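Quick one, tokens below:
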């Protein structure tokens, strides 16, 4: 091969390399612009927490102001724990801060309602029950009357269509509780409990250490694929790992198993 041919081939090779670089730069620019103009939609499951009905314990810490008598520190701790638990099941936390409307639950994988102290409107109840009939999931917690009564919060209107109802304050005077190994928690867990509220309907899985007569946690799978867990005591879902001299309640483990079942 003479020198002229070699020179010609080198020239062609340089042109190919230059064109390849230009093409590569163009492709990268297209991907960059697409990512900027059309951000990737999160694939994480969405847990919507209601904070619009006088919730006694939960709030969005981002909207709270630190001050005397303010629960910001406690809410931050609980939220950090909640987010960790949600992340462990590939989910994220979002808030419902106003009246719940049908569109609000369009991308909701789990509706989280914890000790409200205000009533839900008929429209909200219809929205939530329709959501559950279509396969949605609900985690609902109430407490004894000191925190919120069934007159304050008409939560039974939400769950009664599914054969579940909160009753009166539990007569069980035991402290501490447990779950039975089964569909919700793979292993028996030691969980926080004191007093609480009775529940009728569903399948019991949370019991006082003193007696199984008044279960404070039940679950139910609905015909349309929806799932419900109802708790008559809020301490475990507040990540209260210590209570009355006991420091090893398994709150995070419990919430992980609950979220895992409700989201799958």
């Amino acid at each position: 091969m003479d020198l002229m041919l070699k020179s010609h081939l080198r020239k062609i090779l340089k042109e190919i390399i230059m064109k390849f670089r230009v093409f590569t730069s163009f492709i990268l620019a297209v991907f960059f612009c697409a990512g900027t103009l059309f951000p990737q939609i999160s694939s994480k499951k969405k847990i919507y927490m209601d904070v619009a009905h006088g919730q006694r314990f939960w709030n969005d810490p981002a909207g709270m102001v630190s001050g005397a008598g303010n629960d910001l520190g406690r809410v931050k701790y609980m939220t950090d724990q909640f987010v960790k638990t949600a992340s462990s099941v590939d989910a994220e936390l979002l808030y419902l801060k106003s009246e719940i409307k049908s569109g609000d639950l369009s991308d909701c994988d789990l509706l989280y309602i914890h000790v409200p102290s205000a009533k839900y409107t008929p429209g909200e109840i219809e929205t939530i029950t329709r959501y559950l009939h279509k396969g949605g999931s609900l985690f609902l917690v109430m407490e004894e009357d000191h925190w919120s009564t069934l007159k304050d919060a008409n939560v039974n209107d939400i769950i009664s269509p599914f054969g579940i109802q909160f009753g009166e304050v539990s007569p069980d005077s035991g402290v501490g509780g447990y779950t039975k190994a089964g569909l919700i928690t793979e292993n028996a867990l030691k969980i926080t409990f004191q007093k609480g509220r009775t529940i009728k309907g569903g399948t019991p899985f949370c019991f006082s250490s003193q007696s199984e007569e008044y279960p404070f946690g039940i679950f139910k799978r609905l015909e349309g694929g929806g799932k419900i867990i109802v708790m008559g005591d809020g301490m475990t879902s507040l990540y209260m790992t210590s209570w009355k001299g006991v420091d090893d309640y398994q709150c995070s483990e419990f919430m992980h198993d609950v979220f895992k079942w409700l989201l799958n």
